[in-house]
Amino acid sequence: MPEIRKDPVFGRWVIIASERGLRPNDFLGKPGDHLCPFCPGNEELTPPTIYSLPGADGGWRLRVVRNKYPALVSEGTSDNRRDGIYDRMDGMGIHEVVIETPEHGRLLEELPAEAVTDVIKTYMLRVKEIKKDPRIKYVMIFKNHGRNAGATLLHPHSQIIAMPMAPLRVMQEIDGAAEYHIERGTCVFCDIVTEEIAFKKRVVAENSSFLAVTPYASRFSFETWILPKKHFSHFENIPEAEAGALAEVLRTALGKLIASLPDLSYNLIVHTMPVCEPEAQHYHWHIEIMPKLTHVAGFEWGTGFYINAVSPEAAAEILNSGKQYKV
Amino acid sequence: MPEIRKDPVFGRWVIIASERGLRPNDFLGKPGDHLCPFCPGNEELTPPTIYSLPGADGGWRLRVVRNKYPALVSEGTSDNRRDGIYDRMDGMGIHEVVIETPEHGRLLEELPAEAVTDVIKTYMLRVKEIKKDPRIKYVMIFKNHGRNAGATLLHPHSQIIAMPMAPLRVMQEIDGAAEYHIERGTCVFCDIVTEEIAFKKRVVAENSSFLAVTPYASRFSFETWILPKKHFSHFENIPEAEAGALAEVLRTALGKLIASLPDLSYNLIVHTMPVCEPEAQHYHWHIEIMPKLTHVAGFEWGTGFYINAVSPEAAAEILNSGKQYKV
């Protein structure tokens, strides 16, 4: 069973999951070394279907399964245990995969708008279902696309990890927003939305409900955030009718990123409040897309201090021009 | 001039340094596309020598120069300025490169013990010199080795970045250690040293003054820390006589890592107190070596929550066996 260990200095948690070393990898070995477990006809290669949407041909158009090589598993407890001077707990949690389309070679942003809307509605539905388990404190939705972003399979998919505690960096972000709210009486993300609409030069996509911008303090070149214009602290609490508007801005933003950076690898992360907390005035859910253009990790890993060679204003200009960018 | 921008939510600082996009890169293009600026005979390709040690042949055996494509520059002030709702400041600081050897193809751990000792003594000397500038609050020493670790040049080198504030993650680490010290009255790193010597199974190298271990909550497979047995909060304050003992443990630890993982990319970071602070009981300088075996970054970037497929006990066993590990 995976084990969660706590760093005694930093307080950060690490999942030690040896089974994950066994995952198939599309980026190592030769093409055809293994069957794609996410393609139609290979359903027996994944754990059973948790949720699916029917396709036109009697098959499925979207499928949710448990991750075969989970970082966390449903057995175990969330109790702390001592291990010498250290703390650990069972790797208890839920790890699901959302197979976004039956088509192996299609990118998320190339899917029809309705299919992207399906993906977003599925995220919402799964969070609402998963949070019924009282052991679950946080549900993280994320997508790794491309080798440099840590993906091991090409077939379009995203992941949902539900865990018995809120990750440290999530809490630091919420604390930062809470501090801003105490100081100024407003939500920092609402203020960012207002500022960016007025400033214009970092806007990449916009509709009546959502705004995509290259953030002021972008850690990565071409980093892009999608912010809802209406304040909600929890992603899963937005009206279902908003899913289409989010899909539209997400498709436009990802489409512009891929147009300017054809072989782009990226991580997409839904930032949201812990599911165990009520709706809050000081935090505002949003999506962060982090392109991984180069291995510029450098000393950033150890310091949280990032160096970015493309200013967000230059990045937005390139993305909006439709021109290709040479890394 | 580079600009430092503050994220209004998280409080993290980002350096926007467009000039860095112009750096030569050994990992792109063809070999021989550019001359190595760190090889003897090409000294005119770098800024002038700041410090050097003489070689046997009338040349140099180690050289320190200003980084030609700096993340921070010596002009400018450390004053905050408003930019809409955001904060920024000049990218003021110092960015130096330590060219560890004249030999292009030699790895740090393949150098004679005296040469590694020279590198460590040079780090100490440069920190002591740089911290005379009262604008400087923090001096970060780090080494990126290999493409996956963000290196752009092959020739063995390390970097020193001095900055007008302590990075957020450095402060979080120091705060974590301070909290432990308040709760238990001991230094958490001193306790780790005692625990690891007793537990044995995570020890990779040891001599009378230093201990190398795979830490209990390793974020990365084969992550290795080097801890001084004697408590000092500031790296630059250790007795110069300790440099040789540190070089010995560093060479052994890096040697074992490269033996088991031949094409290893890694980041090495010296964690130390801000130079503007006095020696402290609650913090203990150390070195963290973070191997970059796979692009397992995944959702770790956004969460600070890491997934590691090789337990530190298994990693230490492999490193001590001398066996090669297949990633």
Brief characterization of the structure:
2 copies of one chain form a homodimer. By secondary structure, the first copy, chain A, is of the alpha+beta class. Chain A has 6 helices and 15 strands.
Describe the fold and architecture.
Two copies of one chain form a homodimer. With 327 residues, the first copy, chain A, is α+β, with helices and mostly antiparallel strands. Chain A folds into two domains: 3-168, HIT family, subunit A (2-Layer Sandwich); 169-321, HIT family, subunit A (2-Layer Sandwich). Chain A is built from six helices and 15 strands. The longest helix of chain A has 18 residues, at 113-130. The first copy, chain A, starts with a strand and ends in a 6-residue tail after the last helix. Strand 2 (13-16) of chain A pairs parallel with strand 15 of chain B.
Write the layout of secondary structure elements.
Two copies of one chain form a homodimer.
Chain A (H helix, E strand, L loop, with lengths): L2 E4 L6 E4 L32 E6 L5 E7 L14 E3 L2 E5 L3 E6 L13 H18 L7 E8 L11 E7 L4 H17 L3 H12 L3 E4 L3 E4 L10 E5 L14 H18 L5 E6 L14 E6 L8 H4 L2 E3 L3 H10 L6
Antiparallel strand pairs in A: 1-2, 1-6, 3-4, 4-7, 5-6, 7-9, 8-9, 8-13, 10-11, 11-12, 12-14, 13-14
Helix pairs in contact in A: 1-4
Instruction: Encode the helix/strand succession of chain A as letters.
Output: EEEEEEEHEEHHEEEHEEHEH
Q: What is the subunit organization of this protein? A: homodimer
CATH class of the largest domain in chain A, please? Alpha Beta
The end-to-end span of chain A amounts to: 41 Å
> Beta-sheet strand percentage of chain A?
15-25%
What is the CATH topology assignment of the largest domain in chain A? HIT family, subunit A
Mean pLDDT of chain A: 91
Weakly predicted, low-confidence segments of chain A: none
Structure annotation, total helices of chain A: 6
Q: Tell me roughly what share of residues is in helical segments of chain A.
A: 10-25%
In one word, what is the shape of chain A? globular
Radius of gyration of chain A from the CA trace?
20 Å
What count of structural domains of chain A? 2
The main sheet of chain A orders its strands as 3-4-7-9-8-13-14-12-11-10
**Structural class, from helix and strand content of chain A?**
alpha+beta
Q: List how many beta strands of chain A DSSP finds.
A: 15
Outline the biggest β-sheet of chain A: 10 strands, antiparallel
CATH superfamily of the largest domain in chain A: HIT-like
CATH architecture of the largest domain in chain A: 2-Layer Sandwich
**Largest interface, counted by CB within 8 Å of the partner chain's CB:** A-B, 80 and 81 residues
